[in-house]
């Protein structure tokens, strides 16, 4: 990417948000595995919290179902818990809590009970962690009514999204953090620009940000991406613009469920061509949902069949060369957008 204005890293943004929330609000606590300093969690997002707030950083045995359930009880009793899942793959060990409990209590008890909690889940590959520590499993929870799913990218303020998810959202939120993003710097817009890119964002609690190499009066392709795939999508858009003079608008939602489709439809009015990418596998995934909704709500905008770009249907390998073969790459997006 060309030089762009940068603020703090995603990791520092998340860590700073937790520090400030715990300092300002005694209801906020953190629960999970290996959180205590000096370790500070598997990816160090919790660093410094147990030293400052020793009674509100709770380290647990290895039982995701157990500590997610404990946090749910705390939320129903007025606390605002943040749960850290060590690796997002292990979110499936708490599937019963997600599907049969925390996502349903509000409805079961006629809105007299709320479960305002955030479950932070580090997802994704490209770090050589292998088949059971590299997956993007969020598609398996996108169809659970009552559960919100938020996924920041470098185009969003991750700390602000975490704060909104915990303090402003009465629904339980799964907060998807792509592991490769932790060291990345957040890109902030100034005057509608991020460096040479044109940028615009919706004003929702969980905004969608759209970037383009040209003003928003023409586009050849609408490329929808979230989380860690946003940087890859932006690199593909840059390649296509300078090598082939194709204008690709990258649409990056921060909320996967519920999904605000309007920014996608707005972009399709200019492009007529849709490509959706995700790091997980394609079957029954985010891309399938976006394309289904666009077909139902904006079919007349499409000038070509929509395309999905996703991981191949294999377990993710440890070896870098095999991992690259399995996961979607810049070249895959370039081919899909042509």
Description:
With 338 residues, the protein is α/β, with parallel strands linked by helices. The protein folds into two domains: 8-181, Rossmann fold; 188-337, Rossmann fold, CATH 3.40.50. The protein is built from eleven helices and 16 strands. It has helices spanning 10-24, 49-52, 64-76, 95-102, 105-108, 158-167, 229-244, 262-271, 286-297, 320-326, 330-337, and strands at 6-9, 28-32, 57-59, 80-84, 118-123, 148-150, 173-178, 185-187, 193-194, 197-201, 208-212, 221-224, 248-253, 255-257, 274-281, 307-311. A seven-stranded mixed beta sheet has the order 3-2-4-5-7-6-14, sandwiched between helices. Strands 9-10-11-13-12-15-16 form a seven-stranded mixed beta sheet, with helices on both faces. α7 crosses α11 (330-337). The radius of gyration is 20 Å and the shape is globular. The model is unreliable at 1-5 (pLDDT under 50). This is Alpha-ketoacid dehydrogenase subunit beta. GO terms for molecular function: oxidoreductase activity. It comes from Lujinxingia vulgaris.
């Amino acid at each position: 990417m060309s030089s762009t204005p940068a603020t703090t890293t995603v990791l520092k943004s998340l860590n700073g948000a937790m520090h400030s929330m715990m300092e300002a609000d005694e209801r906020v606590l953190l629960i999970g595995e290996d959180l205590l300093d000096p370790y500070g969690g598997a990816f160090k997002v919790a660093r410094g919290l147990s030293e400052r707030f020793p009674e509100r950083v709770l380290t647990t045995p290895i039982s995701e179902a157990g500590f997610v359930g404990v946090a749910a009880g705390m939320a129903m009793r007025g606390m605002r818990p943040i749960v850290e899942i060590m690796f997002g793959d292990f979110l499936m060990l708490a599937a019963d809590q997600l599907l049969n409990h925390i996502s349903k209590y509000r409805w079961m008890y006629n809105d007299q009970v709320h479960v305002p909690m955030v479950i932070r889940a580090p997802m994704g590959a490209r770090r050589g962690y292998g088949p059971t520590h590299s997956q993007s499993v969020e598609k398996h929870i996108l169809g659970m009514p009552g559960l919100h799913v938020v996924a920041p990218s470098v185009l969003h303020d991750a700390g602000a999204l975490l704060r909104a998810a915990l303090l402003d959202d009465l629904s339980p939120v799964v907060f998807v953090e792509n592991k490769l993003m932790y060291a990345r710097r957040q890109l902030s817009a100034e005057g509608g620009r991020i460096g040479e890119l044109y940028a615009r964002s919706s004003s929702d609690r969980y905004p969608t940000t759209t970037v383009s190499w040209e003003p928003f009066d023409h586009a050849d392709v609408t490329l929808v991406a979230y989380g860690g795939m946003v940087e890859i999508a932006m690199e593909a858009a840059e390649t296509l613009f300078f090598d082939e003079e194709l204008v690709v608008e990258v649409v990056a939602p921060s909320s996967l469920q519920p999904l605000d489709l309007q920014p996608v439809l707005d972009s399709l009015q200019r492009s007529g061509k849709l490509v959706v990418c995700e790091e997980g596998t394609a079957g029954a995934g985010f891309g399938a949902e976006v394309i289904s909704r666009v077909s139902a709500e904006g079919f007349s905008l499409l000038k070509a069949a929509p395309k999905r770009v996703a991981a191949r249907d294999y377990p993710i390998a440890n070896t870098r060369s095999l991992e690259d073969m399995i996961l979607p790459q810049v070249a895959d997006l370039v081919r899909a957008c042509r």
